[in-house]
């Protein structure tokens, strides 16, 4: 177990190099990653329809509660699969190959710690979103009053700036939790310690991680903008939707590879002996 972390120095543009290295790992074994992406999307769809069926049949919650509970369990399941994907990424990087069943390595090796860290991080993130939402709402109201006093008839021209400000607050919790699953899997950290160390890494490498998240996160927000995604979904063919689902799965895997590469860059080489011993167990 790594009692203390050595946080290595990085350049502000290092995040771009992470993308390149993650791309190299992705194309190193494209077929297996594609199969894993299909498995990911399939499990997401099964979980989605199962939850909706159970909610309609037994619980009948409100739409808000249904979304909240569904997001909560998706967050936990996502942490467990992240653990397996990180193990797969390390295996590919060190040994040149990995196995599809390693997708579930987080479940049989670090189940409890990954589940607890996901629960803690979920409620921390929701709390941060709530506080940020209240703060931003107050700030925007004050700005509107100030702009009206200064004689500006319309504030629509400032919408891009407000959107960017909102994006910064939305992405910060994810940036802070960036290394939490990797610290649990590779450094054998307990949940609270993993969250704390992930926050410490973020503060020590604030410029690198902030620039990376703002650049990549802005592209992600544009891609998932519901204003153009919704009409596209309703008019797309089944083949297009299937390929889009595969692309989403590959995109998730690519982000996990970025997590692995950034961990290796900032913290150092993950302990291969530790992970292998857990797999053997």
Please give a structural write-up.
The protein is mainly α and 281 residues long. The chain is built from 12 helices and no strands. It has helices at 14-28, 30-59, 63-95, 105-109, 111-149, 159-176, 180-186, 191-204, 206-223, 226-235, 238-266, 272-280. The longest helix has 39 residues, at 111-149. It is globular. Residues 273-281 have low confidence and may be disordered.
The largest β sheet comes out as:
none
- What helical percentage do the residues reach? over 70%
SSE string: HHHHHHHHHHHH
- Using only C-alpha atoms, the radius of gyration works out to 20 Å
From the spread of the alpha carbons, the general shape counts as: globular
By DSSP (H or I, 4+ residues per run), the number of helices equals: 12
Distance between the termini: 17 Å
Structural class: mainly alpha
Mean pLDDT: 78
Low-confidence stretches: 273-281
What fraction of the residues are assigned to beta strands by DSSP?
Answer: under 5%
List keywords for this structure.
single chain; 281 residues; mainly alpha; 12 helices; 81% helix; globular
Topology:
Blueprint: H1 14-28, H2 30-59, H3 63-95, H4 105-109, H5 111-149, H6 159-176, H7 180-186, H8 191-204, H9 206-223, H10 226-235, H11 238-266, H12 272-280
Q: TL;DR?
A:
By secondary structure, the chain is mainly α.
